[in-house]
Design a protein that fits this description.
Layout (H helix, E strand, L loop, with lengths): L4 E9 L2 E6 L2 E8 H11 L4 E5 L11 H10 L4 E4 L5 H9 L4 E4 L1 H5 L2 H10 L4 E9 L5 E5 L4 E6 H11 L3 E6 L11 H10 L4 E4 L5 H9 L4 E4 L1 H4 L5 H10 L10
Length: about 250
Amino acid sequence: MLTTRLIPCLDCDGGRVVKGERFRDLRDCGDAVDLAARYATDGADELTLLDVSATVEGRGHALATTAAVRAVCDVPLCVGGGVKSVEDARRLLQRGADKVAVNSAATRDPALLQRLADAFGDQAVVLAVDAQRGPDGDYFVQTHSGRRRAKVEALEWIHAAAARGAGEVLLTSVDRDGTGDGYDLDLLRRARAATDLPLVASGGARSIAHLSAAAAAGSDALLVASILHDQLTTIPRLKRALAAADLPIRETQT
């Protein structure tokens, strides 16, 4: 049986981990390298490192942060932010990323996903989708760290991702991000029905109940941020609780 992956997310700006609510009012949560080392030692199944200001500022990913994080951890590392080309992705992979996440650039140029898959294999290509619910109940893709709305419906985009070369979907609810109100379960269920790709739930986790509910909604992995950055709990405690809830979890001895 495949285990449900627990993935701390490091949203970074200038080498510092930041976190806000619905992508706004960012606050400093610590040094990216220090937190990456702690979470890897504590038993994280993977780490996700997102440069949240790269696309907004019109620049590439902060490569030095990726290299520094890789130097202190040996778990799989997914890196995103500012990836606009195969060469951008190559530079991240050369500095230690195992997977590269793309969002804004792929909405402008969907063929980018296939070019990345052709170059590195679809297992290295993650479609990052920041989805926000509209007044009619549909979900739309937000780009540029939630500042712009793309002209694509989120579930249709997710459905198309596999055929276009993505190997995984990182799905963040903009509405729930940083709120502690739990993942958007309706969004996750719809996404699960739209694709067979591995699905990573993101946005809103604050309790074991939230994590368990996201897994029950079809998520293969659970992204967590504030719950760890704010030291409300630890990865070993989360894993013990999830295992007690009968979720298949890779155990850690920490």
